[in-house]
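USER: For my understanding, would you kindly supply a protein sequence with its structure tokens?

ASSISTANT:
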Amino acid sequence: MVAPLDLLDLDTQLNDEERDIRAVVRRVADDRVRPYVADWYEKGSTPVRELALEFGKLGLLGMHLTGYGCAGASAVSYGVACMELEAADSGVRSLVSVQGSLAMYAIWKYGSEEQKQRWLPGMAAGELIGCFGLTEPDHGSDPANMSTRARRDGADWILDGGKMWITNAPLADVAVIWARAEEGVYGFAVPTDTPGFAAREIKNKMSLRASSTGEITLDGVRLPESARLPEARGLKAPLSCLTEARFGIIWGSMGAARDCLRVALEYATTREQFGRPIGGFQLTQAKLADMTLELQKGFLLALHLGRLRDAAGALRPEQVSVGKLNNVREAIAIARTCRTILGGNGISGEYPVMRHANNLESVLTYEGTSEIHQLVIGQKLTGLNAFA
């Protein structure tokens, strides 16, 4: 039996350092996540702080950033790390993505030197947890109309409003909060012990259950001017952070798809019906062949975007949209098809396939729905704005 990504020898497209990083992350996922994640998912509870400390020791938190205790790894190295983490569970990859590519990146890119020194070393080590507050109860895909407000009061700022579906919020030590002021959209690094800041855990999720998700309430949160991210002006700043984080999703979603296909292949070659393995039936082989094709195309797309980013320093938003739209859409299709190969066993927590499929429903939505990415691509192709 050939592993899906071995069919075209795609391993040869990675260099030695990238393969070494992949091996280290795969090993920690095998040791610290896979044996426990089904139970975490069942209970809806994850040892976030313990995982963060372990990931920090390995240099995974903010690994693509430079300085302040960050590893300064390449985009492709970060991508393969996300792939291995999400092969274990999307919620675990979300922990790393939100910490490094949203909260840390926002401070690293737009913060003052004082803010960087205060927060980034501890976040890189996993000693401090961060979250990123942009989405609101009534404003998801339309952040330009956010309701959270920042107003001046003497030398201070007062924040009022709320944020919803915020990964890591219930445990965070610092929250990057985006709010609208008279001058436009500003970002703030908010210590979560500030009076008026509250975060409650969102319960009864059917997806990303091995991830801490919260609702943030801001009730007269008073902050000094030193809490404002001085280089963040306008909506472009938080949107650039989302572009940064979406890159990890392009890779991570392929990890979830690969894990589903791995399980389906093993099952198809050992499960017997009508006197032979179900992998010997034409319909099953057709499913496996089509899924492997899409997995390899998705990996090559992720790798191409990673090489572009390493060469150019950044990707254009529409390039990231192509990757997120294609890879998450194909990953969820692969997960659902793998479930059919496993039959009734496909819904059992003894196998990871339904867990991956459920998780990918959230990945499909967060950091830009498929429809939003279609419009980003469409606008680039036509020059016409169809958002309004």
Q: What stands out?
A: The domain at 4-124 is CATH 1.10.540.10 (Butyryl-Coa Dehydrogenase, subunit A; domain 1). The chain is about 50% helix and 15% strand. The chain has a mean pLDDT of 96. The chain has three domains: 4-124, 130-227, 236-382.
